[in-house]
Amino acid sequence: MEWMAWTLPTVLFFAGVGVLLACMTVFELRRPCLERRGFLPIATTRGDRLFIGLLVSAYLHLLLVGLSDGPLWVASLLSLAWLVVVLRWG
């Protein structure tokens, strides 16, 4: 595992994604969901919305790192807000 810089933020990020996936799995087993339509142009399940939210969050971070010198926590807050919006109303 020496090929990757396992810093505390890196560990927290991957642990957070792992916990999120585990919680979504338990939630799906306890309360299966049906596809629904929100503001996204396709019918989605909870897992679809989580995937879309995580994917857009990654792109937000890449945009911030690539196009500005702003602090990374700004992208993290925007990503968290986006994820909540997509999971709730997407």
Automatic annotation (TrEMBL):
Protein name: DUF2160 domain-containing protein
Membrane spanning residue stretches: 6-29, 50-67, 73-89
InterPro entries for this protein: DUF2160_TM
Native species: Pseudomonas fakonensis
Keywords in alphabetical order: Membrane, Transmembrane, Transmembrane helix
